[in-house]
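Morning. Coffee machine broken again, so started the prediction first thing and wrote up yesterday's gels while waiting. Chain of 275 residues, entered below exactly as on the submission form.
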Amino acid sequence: MHSDSATSTFARHAVLSLSALIVIFPFLWIVAAGFKNQIDLLLGKFLFVPTWRNFEAIFNSTSDFARNFLNSIIVASTSMVLVLIVATLASYSLYRMRWPSWVLHSLLAWSVVFHMVPPITLAGAWFTMFRSLGLDNTLSGIILAHTTLNLPMALWMMGVFIRDVPNELVDAASMDGARTPQILRHVVLPIVRPGLAATGILSFIFSWNEFPVVLTLAQRQTATVPIGIGKYAQENTVAFTEMAAASTLSMLPAFLLLLIAQRFIVRGLTSGAVK
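Came back before lunch.
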């Protein structure tokens, strides 16, 4: 009996370890490629002498990668904050303000439909609109576009968390004279904090990785990291190792966010799975 249990545990750990290796291997390959010479990479050498040359190249005076990185930080952070604010207020209104049920269902259905529309189909209309408003080739225009793209996802996620806030707590605060802003700040937000963390992280990552809309709206001064990485693929040559080095650095913000907010993300993504 004890032997069967040990065998089952070993098999489970082996499957989990193999699954983790399959997921992690592409990232390890990219990181390793960033420390290789182009020749070593193309020859497929497993053993190599690490070099910092690729990382130095992407930060030299002729490269825009540092500017691309700063632009991505600004765009992803600002759009994440806007998405959280709008989604939280909209969810609270939909689930706590006693709207007719058709309003709630219609808005959620429309958000699903909008989320299924390929972003590239919206880029042309946004480019024309932002140019008429003087927002073309600005970080503000890209921030507004990313906020719009990520808002449906955030509305659904925050709606689930706010819907699950006990009515008794909100009613008790209301009976004590608390107004809506006070209820939101002192009752609702502390309870939905895991949802805010999970939604914020996903919004940040989606904005950080978004490519087609930025490709349409941005120029050299406002390009973000995905555009910067794409520049290493030219018509006649592809700088694979420099592209790998830039990709390695582009993983760092999302990786740090996941480490910092891991506890909240797990609680947020699994909330509602167990009652």
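Residues 21 and 223 are 33 Å apart (CA to CA). Going to sketch it on the whiteboard this afternoon.
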